[in-house]
Specification:
- This protein is an alpha+beta fold and 374 residues long.
- The protein has 12 helices and 18 strands.
- The protein has helices at 28-36, 71-84, 116-122, 126-140, 162-168, 215-223, 234-248, 253-260, 265-268, 273-285, 332-336, 363-367, and strands at 14-20, 26-27, 47-52, 62-68, 85-92, 106-114, 144-148, 153-158, 175-176, 178-183, 199-201, 204-210, 295-301, 304-309, 318-322, 325-329, 344-346, 354-357.
- The strands form 4 sheets. The protein has a 7-stranded antiparallel beta sheet with strand order 8-3-10-1-16-15-17. Strands 11-12-13-14-18 form a 5-stranded antiparallel beta sheet. A 4-stranded antiparallel beta sheet has the order 5-6-4-7.
- Helix 6 crosses helix 7 (234-248).
Length: 374
Amino acid sequence: MLKEGNIRIPSGCAISGIIDRSGAVFSGQIIADSIATMHDRSNGLGGGFAAYGIYPDFKEHYAFHMFYDDTKAKQDTEDLLKANFVITYEEKIPTRKTQSIKNAPLIYRYFVLPKLEVLNANEMNDEDFIVKFIFNVNKNIDGAYIFSSGKNMGVFKAVGYPEDVAEFYKLETYNGYMWTAHGRFPTNTPGWWGGAHPFNLLNISVVHNGELSSYDTNRKYLEEFGYSCTLQTDTEVAAYIFDLLLRKHNLPVPLAAKVIASPLWNQVERLSPKERELYYNLKIIYSKALLNGPFSLIVTYDNGFIAINDRIKLRPLTAASQGDMIYVASEESAIRKVCKNPDKVWIPKGGEPVVAEIEQQNISEIYDKKEVTA
């Protein structure tokens, strides 16, 4: 099979996201119905979902979802897992035979906690240790790939159309308070299981439509902070940038949005002195975290999501609300498929974030009041 970067196919891609801000859970069938409406935006070379709130019985454990090419990769990885983690529960992820999903790897999940003595020996907190562990496995164990690693959440992805991926993983049996979905039309790859979206690190996941011309700059910037970009895909760097900004640097979500889709310099010059100083600092400090090129993406984290597209809106994004439910998608049809009569439908401007969180006022509404602080 040709590797990432060795083939180029014009892009399409579909993204969809739904959250119930009350924290109530709903079936994965809903997000599957939403993304299926945009079937023609993908070509069967990748589909996937991120689900939050699906593991309440193990909500304090890290849930590792794993692809293995063979039993040797599985054994090598499990030996390393047992040396570093307490494994509370493990199993093969349930799937059903689906005609269009073929050549599946071995797919397992493990609910784990890092051993205290290992954390002490490495002088690291559990999140930093897990990130380091994931990079080690994905880079150094041939045929093993950790594709999901958060708490009370999980990523499910494969080579196939997203509606077929949902059937394969039995997503109708899972209930979560937030879901995202992706239908892939690869730009620089023939498509493979690990390259399907979402891309995940801890509780941050990204689904993406577009192509980042800033990939190499972003990758080199992330490597300065110890991130290992091994998948040769632009969506991987987007996920790691948000991990850096939100988890490592603890930026507020609206400011993280303005880092990756920063206002143009001539726009900054027209802002108030307070805002101008803020954006000058952001653009200087985080210049290499700016995402250039056409994109729309949905970033999910512990208790909410941010949806945003590039500054001149070269990729589509539509949003809607109905009560506590917030919907975002590449096309309005994907929203109306699962929400017949939304209270509000809007098309965000380029670079304008849609932010929704559990039991909180929409942060984007607060941000629009222009009272911005560093």
